[in-house]
Amino acid sequence: TLHAVPAGDAIDATALKADVLKHLTFTIGRAPEDAALGDWRMALSFAVRDRITESWLASERAAREAGAKRVYYLSLEFLIGRLLEDALVNLGLAEAAEVALRDLGLALGEVVADEPDAALGNGGLGRLAACFMESLATIGCPAIGYGIRYEHGLFRQQFEHGRQVELPELWLEQQHPWEFERPGSRLRVGFGGHVHQVEGRTIWHPAEEVEAEAFDTPIVGWEGQWANPLRLWSARAVYPFDLNRFNHGDFRGAAEPEALARTISRVLYPDDTTDEGKALRLKQEYFFVAASLADILCRFERDFDDLALLPEKVAIQLNDTHPAVAGPELVRLLHDERGVEFSRAVEIARGCLSYTNHTLLPEALESWSEGLFGHLLPRHLEIIERIDAEHYGAHPDRPGSIFEHGEIQMGTLSFVMAHKVNGVSALHTELMKETVFEGLHQVHPDRIVNQTNGVTPRRWLKSCNAALSDLITETIGAGWVRDLSQLERLEPHLGDGAFINRYAAAKRANKAVFSNWLAGDYGLKVDPDAMFDAQIKRIHEYKRQHLNILQTIAAWQAIHDDPQADWTPRLKIFGGKAAPGYHFAKDIIRLINDVAARLNADPVTSKYLQVIFLPNYNVSLAERIIPASDLSEQISTAGKEASGTGNMKFALNGALTIGTLDGANVEIREQVGPENFFLFGMTAAEVTARRAVPDHARRAIEGSAPLARALGALRDGTFSPDEPGRYHGIADNIAGGDHFLVASDFAAYHAAQTDVSRAYGDRETWARMAARNTARSGWFSSDRTIRGYMGEIWGAAPLID
Ligand code: 26Y
């Protein structure tokens, strides 16, 4: 069976097969005849990891020899998903693995799908960090990603009678083959206690200490030329077991220190605003920041002996404010522990640090009460007070203090401690200057810069969409995988009917695969020629899944009025998790599920309109949905979505966007051309103005009969006959304060959806618009984003060409 593939692949396949068998025997300890699917997956993963490790150690050696500047990406979230397929694709071993496994009687697809999806993040911010790790390696920028090795990542979502139920995610229940445990590099992290002055120096005596243990997962770039580690910290007790208590018969007490310490790396904090666990969250933040900075300084001091060189050799990126305590911690390490004069220490720290802001929503901006903060980190509180006083002193026009509203404002602290602060889309960056950071921007006009987000084309096109990737490579060559701007070269082919047919056929093939999977796993039969219309993202009022479902209700009612009309068949796909304490978002989930049940069972309308909410949305599910979608829903209230990155993945894979002028939608529309984008709704400025209009929702409802009627169906129990009042809360919210302007944007959205349906009727024109989206999405590669950070923020250079 080795004859069908090119010679190089055959050699790779032979070697890979031997390595798989070797690892199955000597690493897993299983005979082939006894091996289960998971054993084979593990053996293949180890064989692949060996190859990544070679590249990684060579990369580390090259960076050391070059004395290169290092980038350290600090993030509480890395939403990496599955790693096996990505690694195979980047190493050019996908075909070889297919052949090797076939020889062993296995299907690569099944082996790859057996891997648990590592969900060490909530959403966009965490997935961005994962795309960045892959791009850093592809570009050859020496870097380490630092985070927490959560025992339980984001919860697993199930629906019970349409309601979200959260279950713990058990991704570490099986062995995780990608990581190297580092028992040798354990560090101590302190909390609480008090501060002493000894001979003019300040010493912090923590009351409590835990140990941080490192686990390294190497991340390999395209073509395997470079790899960087993702270093995740796990918490454990300094003295894991209290023998004294044990010998006195207190077995429970003996195990207590370990249990308490381990709590720190137990779970990913959900992005909501409950008060419980606040102290634990702060502990998590300091825990991973302290361990990472100690590690960074240790690496620096191994190679250099002058702390003044630090900003030249070390760039530390703060992924939002979650690692903001890095500012005062670095000052503490330099001033208290190494004797650098205080303002010089601040200056050096600022030379290293930069900060990315991902949100302007007031409820998502982090702040800590001085009481809690000072209790856990007394020395850091003093340092922050001094930083604030000196910043104030230098800027008497008072741009805003770190201490406001009785709390420590982590955004202000991050801004003050960073030499660059970046927004994640052009619009978001401008809004940062006008809103939360207005005062600070005036005194530091060069500090805020824009780096529009991007996505890695290896995972989000090459590996998730083979049909389209192969067509692109046949048409313009394979250079696009490393240099996505080459997608422009598709442009001359867009007038060629044969090319457009092939483009449409690739999408159709993906839709057929998806339909079969839906039928198999969810028992929903759908027509692959229907328009696949997807909204997949965290459930949030500002993202407006309720606008989408309300318009779906209106469309259903319209079909009922005239079932003989020429309706364009659609499948509405939803996916996303709600924060466990976010009750309104959970009501939206239940509503979508109730609407789905009603519509899918409707004999009159279901051939035109079906709805499915796929449970447990995660990275691997996105990889299935995006290549099969025709329409991408990006309908946030303008000014609220900092960037979005799903929007880019859809455009790249040839889904047209229906969207507002928000976040990176603005730039997507500029790139793909306004004629290939379905724009609707108010602008950010109009949103602000409309909120001030009394009764804006009531006026909108009076102006739109379909809206009034759809709201009526929420009120009369159409979707909850057993409990007619179930959706009164949602209806009242939309008809009342309507902070997110669902009512005010409804009519424009409804009209835009009608345009979409009409446009989809002309399949050739639609396919050409979709192909143009692909051809003009090259700018949304995270390689471009990372080059921007390297040039404008980090001052780092690639070590491969
Ligand atoms: C617990 C709390 C402090 C918190 C935890 C997580 C607050 C926020 C978050 C996560 C935020 C997030 O994912 N933001 C998204 O970042 C993406 C990457 O920049 C953007 O594309 C997206 O618009 C933004 O919502």
Automatic annotation (TrEMBL):
Phosphorylase is an important allosteric enzyme in carbohydrate metabolism. Enzymes from different sources differ in their regulatory mechanisms and in their natural substrates. However, all known phosphorylases share catalytic and structural properties. It comes from the Bacteria. This is Alpha-1,4 glucan phosphorylase. Gene3D superfamilies: Glycogen Phosphorylase B. Coiled coil: none annotated. It catalyses: [(1->4)-alpha-D-glucosyl](n) + phosphate = [(1->4)-alpha-D-glucosyl](n-1) + alpha-D-glucose 1-phosphate. It comes from Poseidonocella sedimentorum. Belongs to the glycogen phosphorylase family. GO terms for biological process: glycogen catabolic process. It holds the Pfam family Phosphorylase. GO terms for molecular function: glycogen phosphorylase activity; pyridoxal phosphate binding.
